[in-house]
Write a structure and sequence with these properties.
mainly alpha; Arp2/3 complex 21 kDa subunit ARPC3; globular
Amino acid sequence: MDIKELSLASIFTSLYVVINVVQMFSLGSYTIYGPVQLRVADCLIALAALLGKPVVVGVTVGAFLVNAYYFLGPVDVILGPVANLVAATVVYLLRKRQLLGCTIGALPVGVIVGGYLWTYPFLPPPAFAEFLPVWAASIASITISSVIAIAVLGYGLLRALSKPNIIGSLKARGLKVFI
């Protein structure tokens, strides 16, 4: 990574952390941690289709910092960022089919995070637990939230930032743009 990409990765790391902290303090920590979470900051994952590797690095490091701060446990500190890494990489690799990339990119977060979150005994079970085994309800709950954050909010943000005047401005500043 060159200095511009490293700087952009730092900006996305900061954005991911700040959005999560603002959401946590304004709406409550349960909105970003727990069996029913909608991390609004995950909308940034979709921008990997536009800006590539700096976004992948930024949302991965950002998730590590947020999870290390709140600290549900070491599994969350490691696997939460891995989920973002996989999700952002999928979006980046499928950048020519943005909506598909954002939708498929939401799945690793749901499967990875939902796959371990249910093991924390101090967290309440998700609402779907009445109809499904707790582990399946956890995966379903986190997947639905991730689809909303990445494929709905994130895709909308990606489309808004993909306008020719914005792309031109990014390129004029020497940034690599993949659209």
